[in-house]
Design a protein that fits this description.
12 helices; Rossmann fold; five-stranded mixed β-sheet
Length: 315
């Protein structure tokens, strides 16, 4: 049973890419045959590296439209550079995944108003009440934890909406600082982080191996806590992939209070609203909440929810 996954976007890092990789793996593990494609200037025979041990083919817009009529297809992500081809696919009934409210620009709202839409967090239903809600997929790895764990690590992008400045401020107070990994927005680092601490990079250790879907998860096994200070206007409450990676690694989780975690995530995570509170949590003993973490991973298990995605693309 073939399923075409159309990645209609340029980013090579972040939630869209991680979602696409876990969806691909979940479908594969459940016995489907996922085929990942992007739009190029022309259709190519050779496969290209998507990272995360996944390959894709470039198809021309014309060929993608033609192929999607014969193979069940889902648009995993769409950016502003691909609205034209996506609009034609949506009119033909191809479903699209909308990940969070930041994607809902006026032109996108108009495009998806009468489309077959999938959302991956419950609260998105208030923005798109006609959508189908399917939890975003995560294929758990459950790697062994290190016996010699450091206090804390940050694994998300270094950017305005990730509020890495709170982590940099907390590091000025900690004896053992929070190690920082992830793709860095150089403009944010220059104008925000260097203002807080010109030497903030002494605790920065670069990005992950793009060909390893579980690089962040494995890294987290060497830490007691994973810190994610994300706070995005109009977003929050549910899980992000860095949260699931932390849980999969057996690490405790510290979130921004403004994220306002809900449900099982609220029971699993600790929250901080200031750098002082974050520093204090990084030094406090954390209770074992692994049973709650197991329940969260079950909800998002990519293999178990692959059938839900298949139903969407074949209805």
């Amino acid at each position: 049973m073939k399923i075409l996954i159309a990645y209609l976007a340029k980013p090579r890092y972040g939630g869209w890419v991680t979602f696409t990789a876990h969806l691909h793996r979940g479908l594969r593990d459940a016995g489907y045959e996922p085929i990942l494609v992007k739009v190029g200037n022309r259709t190519e025979k050779q496969l290209r590296n998507f990272g995360r041990k996944i390959h894709y083919r470039n198809l021309s817009a014309t060929d993608l439209l033609s192929v999607s009529k014969g193979i069940p297809t889902i648009i995993a992500a769409m950016d502003k550079h691909h609205h034209d081809v996506a609009n034609q696919m949506l009119k033909a009934g191809v479903p699209i995944v909308i990940h969070d409210p930041t994607e809902l620009k006026p032109e996108v709202v108009a495009q998806v108003k009468n489309a077959n839409v999938v959302v991956i967090r419950d609260f998105m239903m208030k923005h798109l009440p006609h959508a189908t809600m399917i939890h975003h997929p995560y294929a758990p790895k459950r790697p062994a934890r290190s016996t010699d764990r450091k206090p804390a690590v940050a694994l998300s992008r270094i950017d305005f909406d990730k509020h890495t400045e709170l982590i940099v401020q907390a590091n000025q107070k900690l004896v053992t600082p929070i190690d920082v990994y992830g793709f860095c927005n150089s403009m944010y680092a220059h104008f925000k982080l260097e203002e807080v601490d010109p030497d903030w990079k002494r605790n920065y250790h670069g990005t992950f191996d793009a060909d390893d879907l579980y690089a962040a998860t494995r890294l987290a096994t060497g830490y007691e806590r994973v810190v994610d200070m994300s706070a995005i206007k109009g977003d929050g409450g549910g899980t992000q992939y860095t949260f699931l990676e932390a849980i999969d690694a057996g690490a405790s989780l510290i979130l921004n209070r403004d994220w306002n975690p809900q449900g099982l995530l609220r029971d699993y995570a600790h929250t901080a609203g200031t750098a002082d509170e974050l520093a204090e949590l990084c030094e406090r003993s954390m209770p074992d909440r692994s049973a709650i973490g197991n329940e969260i991973l079950k909800v998002h298990d990519a293999r178990n929810i692959a059938g839900s995605f298949y139903k969407v693309v074949t209805r």
